[in-house]
Amino acid sequence: MPEDEKRELVRFTYQYSPDFREEYVTGARGGIQNIYHLRLDFYNERSKLRSLEDSLVEDTDGSRRIEPTESSNEPDIIERTFKVGLVLSFNAVRELSRFLAEKVKEIDEIERKLAKQITGGE
Questions:
Q1: For residue range 35-56, what is the model confidence (pLDDT) as tens digits?
Q2: Virtual CA dihedral for 25, 80, 90, 22, nearest 10 degrees?
Q3: What is the CA radius of gyration of the chain?
Q4: In this structure, are residues 89 and 37 in contact, taking their beta carbons and an 8 Å threshold?
């Protein structure tokens, strides 16, 4: 249909709920919850601090020193704190997928332009 022949069918307006909150997240996980929905839980992650406790220890020769209560030989622990969970209909998942694909293209273009500016390329 040519541009001058299109007609508006529905107009959407948007507003924020009074309890709307914005969260910064570093990752997500989830999956199909049942035959109608997909669940996405968004989280932040950070390195978990080792114990904030030290002990005064005494060696058999009588010398003393302060050392951490927890062994430093243990592997690092990354703590993931879930901030918000979404349950989406499959239709909403498809729409979100299209939206994200479009935004990724925009981000890639911005990054290409920035790289050219930094390197002085055309």
A1: 899 999 999 999 877 667 788 9
A2: -30
A3: 26
A4: yes
